[in-house]
Amino acid sequence: MLIRIDPGSDVALFAQVAASLRGEMAQGRLRPGDRLPAAREVGTSLGVNLHTVLRAYQDLRDEGLVDMRRGRGAVVTPRAAALSDLRAEILALGDRARALGMTADTLASLVRDSLSDGQPGTGWPEGPREQV
Amino acid sequence: MAASARTVVARATWVALVVPVVVTAVAVALQLAWLGSLPDPVAIHWGLAGGPNGFAAAWVSIAITSAAGLLLPVLMAAATIPALRRGAQGPTFRFMAALSAGMSVLMGVVATWALAMQRGLADATAAPSITPALLVGLAAGAVVGAVGWAVQPGQEQVIVGASAAEPMPVRPGERVLWTRTATAAPWLMLLLGATALVTVALGVAAWFTDPARAWTWLATTVVVVLAIAGTGAYTVRVDGDGLTVTAALGLPRFHVPLAEIDAAGTGDVVGLGEFGGYGIRHAPHTTGVILRNGPALRVRRTDGRYLVVTVDDAPVAAALIEGLVERRARSRG
């Protein structure tokens, strides 16, 4: 299981930790039933506060991706398998968006909007970009 | 220089398997031929004082001779020859084959001699000391072992699937953690678990017959349980500090600081053939946390020594270590 964070990035550290773990689930390297390492150890290794790691774990719990029980730690739920089921489609979508010259932010906001309540996205670039 | 794989496999098969099978077959044939002239029961165990103190029917001796003479060679051959066929080789493979031949000769000589000296006796309690049989058996085993070593080609360590990792790019300032639990092969845990159960059963049995011996078995059980605890699972961690391998109990623990890592790669482990067994193992210039056969992380320290861990996803760990080492080298100019 690989976690990468960049303190120089604008994204909050807890969000980066959560995103790393989601990515591992999507790639099938974290599977249902796997236990996440103790938050304290993750914090020590990454040089971040214990509460930053716990916040990431709580986000994943709120998304139903991990189950947190006293004494057992955080355990990946069967729902994580759904992430890896979507992986092929997500990769294909990413390839398509790249071919169309879309930025990652644009695609992300479109996907986010499509999942909310049908509000049209606002992230289209100003006019089509040319791929060189 | 790597010896020809074909020669290595052929000689190892002769030394590790054919010689023990022939030696054991001869020993069993002799014992069978003597069945008519042996006392019943025969002595099968001798005390430290030299006289016999354990007795059983003659077929028990034959069964023990077959099992003791064949078990180790068959296990050894099954565990190492398929790997030799895939191209693995090294001094430990050579040694284990020679050990297999030597041990079978020791077993065969001692068990057969023990029965030979009881031929014509009316009562096995009159059997003489086993010491000469032991001394001759040890000498013969050593000689056969040495010959078994000599007839195999000299071989450098060859690791199947050995490859250096391509560094995974790590940006300046980025922090990384890779962690994974390395678990023991199920058969290894079954073997240790069965051993623990046997020692417990023998301890309980001894409690009713010889309480003093029960304590010995209890101590043995404790040793086996500790072996299980030290073999069951290790956490393998790669981060800015380097590589850390920690047993589930917290100890033993192995740490290689990033500054002392020269290179990381992967390669297949054959526990018996490369390390002579499983668990925490030492081989020339190498420490191994060997919990199963197969792909392993191999890290070379700057002083030339290796740390080897049989962990899944080793290529990711090796690539990350290489990336961290490269970033460190870059930042130091």
TrEMBL record, chain A:
Q: Which residues form the signal peptide?
A: none
Q: Does the keyword Hydrolase apply?
A: no
Span list, region Disordered: 113-132
Question: Do you know which Gene3D superfamilies this protein is assigned to?
Answer: Winged helix-like DNA-binding domain superfamily/Winged helix DNA-binding domain
**CDD domains recorded:** WHTH_GntR (cd07377)
Checking Pfam families in the record gives: GntR
Q: Which UniProt keywords apply?
A: DNA-binding, Transcription, Transcription regulation
| InterPro entries in the cross-refs | Tscrpt_reg_HTH_GntR (IPR000524), WH-like_DNA-bd_sf (IPR036388), WH_DNA-bd_sf (IPR036390)
Per UniProt, residues of the HTH gntR-type domain are 11-79
Q: What is this protein called?
A: GntR family transcriptional regulator
Q: Does the keyword Transcription apply?
A: yes
UniProtKB/TrEMBL annotation, chain B:
Q: Which InterPro entries match?
A: DUF1648
Which parts pass through the membrane?
A: 12-36, 56-81, 93-117, 129-151, 187-208, 214-236
Instruction: Using the record's annotation, list all stretches that form the DUF1648 domain.
Output: 23-64
UniProt KW Transport keyword: no
- What Pfam family is a match for this entry? DUF1648
Q: Which domain of life is it from?
A: Bacteria
Cite the entry's keywords alphabetically.
Membrane, Transmembrane, Transmembrane helix
Q: What is this protein called?
A: DUF1648 domain-containing protein
Species this chain originates from = Actinotalea lenta
